[in-house]
């Protein structure tokens, strides 16, 4: 009893009382479904029941050409989104990191696509980029340029998806970078200028290192969003033409909800989870998030 | 002094507005509370009645074919509730594209609706899962004989009925009448005298050349019309045993090659099969850019509302010379789930809903075809078009209805569509593409 009272006196125990409701929700809506998905990945859905079938789903998965195409497409999409996301949004953030009503207006304009829901945005882009009657090709024709197949063209479908994703997300990452830029004390830049540093030196040696936490956040979130992308594919391409925009999450959806292969779809999601986990661990080590450096 | 006066007026104004707002709000709150109390009282009465066994609530999940269809559902439900005061029908409407995704989790959680309106090719999968009720005790041979045999088979699993056919859907050829007349094309008068493939291709090219219309022909991106085209060439998806693939036999492949050539020659836009938008071809037709559009009867109301710039009609599907006229026809069925606690009441409802009188009224209003042999819906809107689709639907062979109804059909169609697209867009040879589909069919059947 005395020991219990002693423990209860420890302040950290109070924190647990606040955390428990959130932990329960996390357990019920995240942990348990994930564990159930692991279980289902070793079963086959037949005659209304899940029947244990060992590693059959995983073996089938590793032999499936479409699965590997989807993994390749997912990596293509991820790299295609991350690099421009970080570069463009950082460039915009630096350019707009000034005071003035014009800059505020521009920041709002860049942020507007973020406020539109992804499904609505995708439906709008389907119309705008319609290869036969869309506005985009109409303007290309006016400029005497050749029409583009956009999401209905094997070569253009992935660049189109990357383009619309960038349009949607750059504003969000811009805000993250802006917040990061505004935490950098201005006297660093002033001191560097006094010492004769030009803009590039300031950016490389002061801004970029101090933006590391923001960079890491943008980098990791854009990887996670890219691996999980679904709405754009569902609304715009359905994984086609052929399999040229078949990304892994859409493949999982199709196997589970169109072909009712729930066990196989779960196995695919487990494999995707493991790939993503390895990817993130590598990024964590690369960024050395837990290492602090004093730049003063 | 002046400033004090202005500020005082402003304060008085703001306080008056606030007080006025509060009093209005109080009134509105009171009214809302009264309404809520009434609704709660009614709901409590109904729950009490239901618990006492006085009211039976049936959940009906459906997708509407078009707005008039959905409207008439509500009309019929209201009428039924008046006829049967102890029955309450709760209707849930879900778009066709999302229907299975919404229904499957309910089936797996063993909480499906009592009744669902489903596409006829879905019922087999649900029946194979053991989710559907056996309605043998309620249905007599006399009931069965009232329905077209090609539609009735889609309500059977292992010879046991699980639902009733509600509508029929057929594929035929929509056309831009303004462009066709300008080109001086004469259309076939009946399904038996329909054009051959070559005659049709010639007609489509002539319209393109003479009128400047962008495309001569386009197809709704779905297995439904593509299979109809394959049937029109004497091909099939499966053999008589409904297990052996025939999609890669000579006739099936020839049908796919023919369509591929049409796309390659620019008669059809290759972006349509490549697009992820299933309505891409429909949008082109509505925009007046396509002379002939291969799609289904469900578009009648949509086209009547949407197409104002040109006249349109429907004609019969072409077939390969020497082959029989073909179509793909399915429809919607009303099915009952075995988890329903009121199977008898659910059957009474669907039986009443699909009876001769209601079928004629409903389908006439919604511009849909009837699966019954004894009905003649009176179509208020474009009866000429419905006549063509009805005649085309009569060309359906039982084999085609059966193969679209097997429980593995949902597993086969994604591979079929993927490889058809690869073939039609010239990315893969038609024979290779159909061989891949055949391999997939064999793998699925072996499992």
Keyphrases for this structure?
heterodimer; A: 296 residues; mainly alpha; MetI-like fold; 2 domains; two-stranded antiparallel ribbon; 14 helices; 3% strand; B: 447 residues; alpha/beta; D-Maltodextrin-Binding Protein, domain 2; 5-stranded mixed β-sheet; globular
Stated plainly, the CATH topology of the largest domain in chain B is called D-Maltodextrin-Binding Protein, domain 2
Q: What is the domain tally of chain A?
A: 2
Query: How many distinct beta strands of chain B?
Result: 12
Largest sheet, spatial ordering of strands of chain B? 2-1-3-12-6
The outline of chain B comes out as globular
The DSSP helix count of chain B reads 19
CATH evolutionary superfamily of the largest domain in chain B: Periplasmic binding protein-like II
What is the alpha-carbon Rg of chain A in Å?
24 Å
Helix content of chain A: over 70%
Q: What is the number of independent domains of chain B?
A: 2
**Average pLDDT across residues of chain B?**
90
Biggest beta sheet attributes of chain A:
2 strands, antiparallel
- Beta strand % of chain B: 5-15%
In sequence order, what are the helices and strands of chain A, one letter per element? HHEEHHHHHHHHHHHH
Radius of gyration of chain B: 27 Å
Largest sheet of chain B: 5 strands, mixed
Strand proportion of chain A, as a percent range, falls in under 5%
Distance between the termini of chain A: 51 Å
Intertermini distance of chain B: 93 Å
Topology:
The complex is a heterodimer of chains A (296) and B (447).
Chain A: H1 2-9, H2 11-40, E1 43-46, E2 49-52, H3 56-63, H4 65-95, H5 101-115, H6 118-128, H7 135-142, H8 157-181, H9 186-194, H10 199-210, H11 212-228, H12 231-237, H13 248-258, H14 262-287
Antiparallel strand pairs in A: 1-2
Chain B: H1 2-51, E1 56-62, H2 67-83, E2 87-93, H3 96-108, E3 115-119, H4 123-128, H5 141-144, H6 149-152, E4 156-157, E5 160-161, E6 163-165, E7 169-176, H7 177-183, H8 197-211, E8 215-219, H9 223-232, H10 250-264, H11 271-274, H12 280-286, E9 290-296, H13 300-306, E10 312-315, E11 329-330, E12 332-336, H14 343-353, H15 356-366, H16 383-393, H17 398-403, H18 409-424, H19 430-446
Parallel strand pairs in B: 1-2, 1-3, 8-9
Antiparallel strand pairs in B: 3-12, 4-5, 6-12, 7-9, 7-10, 7-11
Helix pairs in contact in B: 2-15, 7-8, 9-10, 18-19
């Amino acid at each position: 009893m005395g020991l219990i009272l002693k423990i209860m006196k420890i302040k950290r125990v109070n924190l647990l009382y606040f955390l428990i409701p959130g932990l329960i929700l996390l357990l019920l809506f995240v942990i348990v479904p994930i564990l159930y998905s692991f279980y289902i990945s070793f079963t086959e859905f037949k005659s209304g029941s899940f029947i244990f079938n060992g590693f059959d789903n995983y073996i089938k998965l590793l032999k499936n050409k479409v699965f590997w195409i989807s993994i390749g497409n997912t990596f293509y999409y991820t790299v295609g989104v991350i690099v421009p996301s970080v570069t463009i949004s950082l460039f915009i953030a630096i350019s707009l990191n000034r005071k003035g009503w014009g800059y505020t207006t521009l920041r709002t304009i860049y942020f507007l696509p973020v406020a539109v829901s992804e499904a609505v945005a995708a439906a709008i882009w389907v119309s705008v980029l319609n290869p036969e009657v869309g506005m985009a090709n109409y303007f290309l024709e006016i400029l005497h340029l050749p029409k583009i197949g956009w999401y209905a063209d094997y070569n253009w479908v992935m660049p189109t998806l990357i383009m619309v994703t960038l349009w949607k997300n750059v504003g969000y990452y811009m805000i993250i970078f802006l917040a990061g830029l505004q935490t950098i004390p201005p006297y660093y830049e002033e001191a560097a200028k006094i010492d004769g540093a030009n803009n590039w030196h300031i950016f490389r040696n002061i801004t970029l290192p101090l933006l590391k936490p923001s960079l890491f956040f943008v980098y990791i979130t854009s990887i996670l969003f890219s691996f999980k992308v679904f709405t754009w594919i569902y609304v715009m391409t359905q994984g086609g033409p052929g399999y040229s925009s078949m990304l892994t999450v859409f493949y999982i959806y199709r196997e589970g909800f169109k072909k009712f292969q729930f066990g196989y779809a779960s196995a695919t999601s487990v494999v995707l989870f493991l790939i993503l986990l390895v990817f993130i661990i590598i990024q964590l080590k690369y960024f050395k998030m837990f290492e602090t450096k004093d730049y003063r | 002094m002046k400033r004090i006066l202005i500020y005082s007026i402003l304060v008085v104004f703001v306080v008056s507005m606030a007080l006025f707002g509060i009093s209005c709000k109080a009134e509105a709150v009171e009214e809302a509370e009264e309404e809520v109390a009434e609704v709660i009282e009614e709901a409590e009465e109904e729950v009490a009645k239901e618990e006492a066994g006085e009211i039976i609530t049936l959940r009906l999940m459906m997708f509407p074919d078009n707005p008039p269809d959905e409207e008439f559902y509500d009309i019929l439900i209201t009428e039924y509730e008046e006829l049967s005061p102890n029955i309450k029908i709760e209707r849930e409407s879900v778009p066709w594209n999302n229907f299975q995704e919404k229904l499957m989790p309910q089936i797996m959680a063993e909480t499906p609706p009592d009744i669902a309106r489903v596409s006829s090719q879905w019922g087999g999968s649900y029946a194979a899962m053991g989710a559907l009720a056996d309605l043998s005790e309620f249905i007599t041979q006399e009931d069965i004989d009232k329905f077209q045999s090609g539609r009735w088979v889609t309500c059977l699993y292992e010879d046991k009925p699980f639902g009733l056919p509600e509508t029929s859907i057929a594929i035929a050829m929509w056309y831009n009448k303004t462009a066709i007349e300008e080109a001086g094309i004469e259309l076939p008068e009946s399904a038996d005298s329909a054009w051959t493939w070559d005659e049709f291709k010639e007609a489509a090219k002539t319209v393109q050349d003479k009128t400047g219309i962008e495309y001569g022909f386009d197809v709704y991106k779905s297995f439904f019309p593509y299979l109809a085209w394959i049937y029109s060439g004497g091909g099939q998806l499966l053999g008589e045993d409904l297990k052996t693939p025939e999609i890669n036999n000579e006739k099936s492949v020839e049908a796919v090659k023919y369509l591929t050539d049409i796309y390659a020659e620019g008669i059809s836009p290759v972006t349509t099969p490549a697009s992820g938008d299933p309505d891409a071809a429909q949008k082109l037709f509505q925009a007046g850019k396509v002379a002939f559009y291969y799609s289904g009867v469900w578009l009648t109301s949509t086209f009547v509302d949407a197409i104002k710039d040109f006249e349109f009609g429907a004609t019969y599907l072409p077939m390969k010379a020497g082959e029989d006229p073909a179509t793909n026809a399915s429809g919607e069925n009303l099915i009952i789930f075995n988890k329903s606690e009121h199977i008898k009441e659910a059957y009474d409802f669907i039986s009443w809903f699909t009876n001769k009188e209601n079928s004629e009224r409903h389908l006439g209003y919604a511009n849909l075809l009837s699966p019954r042999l004894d009905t003649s819906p009176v179509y208020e809107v474009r009866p000429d078009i419905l006549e063509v689709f009805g005649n085309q639907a009569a060309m359906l062979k039982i084999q085609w209805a059966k193969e679209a109804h097997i429980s593995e059909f949902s597993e086969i169609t994604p591979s079929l569509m993927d490889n058809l697209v690869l073939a039609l867009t010239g990315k893969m040879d038609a024979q290779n593409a159909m061989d891949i589909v055949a391999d997939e069919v064999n793998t699925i059947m072996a499992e």
